[in-house]
Amino acid sequence: MLGIDRTIRLPLAGKYVAYFCPSHKMLAEVWRTARRILLPVTRSANKTDHRIELITGGIIDMWSLENYDSIRGRKYHRVVVDEAAMCAQLEDAWQAVIRPTLTDYAGDAWFLSTPKGINFFKTLFDRGQDPAHPDWMSWQMPTLSNPFILPSEVEAARRELPSIVFTQEYEAAFLQSEGAVFRNIEACLHAPLVITNDAHRGHRIVQGVDFAQKHDYTVLCAFCATCMCEVELDRFNKIGWGLVRGKLKAQRERWGIDETLAELNSIGSPNIEALQDEDLNIIGFETTASSKSPLIQNLVLAFERVEAQWLNNPVATSELIAYESIINKMTGRVGYSAPPGGFDDTVIARSLALKQAQKSDCIAEHGESLW
Ligand SMILES: [Zn+2]
After folding, report:
1. What are the structural domains of the chain?
2. Ligand 1 mean position to 244 CA, how many Å?
3. Mind giving me the DSSP string for 162-186?
């Protein structure tokens, strides 16, 4: 209903909207509904092209994404993609075909769906939660938030369905794929949010740093080794290296940090050298195929055993959920990475901070732990 509402509103004011759905079968149903609702204001309707022209001059085109190539060259004020998570080629359809139709009118796009694992729909959802994408918004609505559905019906479904099905279909949860790495994430997101370091006075706080490669983000993770909890997670991109080092130093000063473990690769080493020249205690960590797995595995275990608490940062939590293990068929070794198109900067920075915190030869003056 939301999809139909978004689709017909602008054409009532004379504008052009396209509605997309995953299959011809679904298209036929929505077409019938839209026709019925719009009948009093319809000037003409073409069932072959699935086009409705209104007396206002507004136009609605409806498409199945089964063969989206025929859509090229149109212009719309709005597009609606219904059951977007079910569209197998959503990413390509959006980038190659749908997105360009919005350029002329600076139109908007709506993606509606029940989740279906960690796919491109999840990527779009995450943009809505990420302050780095101010043009995007996202909302998650479990079935129970619908006032027109009886709670007793939802309860009945909960009893009858496998929990994994219920969680996805009724609670609108993005469930991890088979290769998911991090378990127990929810139980480990209770790091107390403190703005000053008063609560951690006298504690040993360390820093983990992942320097941005070309397209990703620099992440600074400050972690209290005494409390075993994260105290600050800073993530940013598109700023000069001088400013990056300035932010790194500012976080050290803010939290009284002495030890930093930073990724050494490519752009890491000149930055680490520059900071070492200023007599800062910064250790480089070289991630290779053989050093990365134990580093990540260590963080995975900390989650499984609930040994550390982390800030509930939506971007970082999404990266944990999406993180994947891949078994290399040639070597049989397990590797870890973000899914294609995803980022893992917060995972790396947190892994480094945890590793440094666990270093046993740094004896802390133990104060009272916060949790
Ligand atoms: Zn502390």
Report:
1. 2-139 (3.40.50.300), 186-357 (3.30.420.240)
2. 25
3. -HHHHHHHTT------TTB----TG
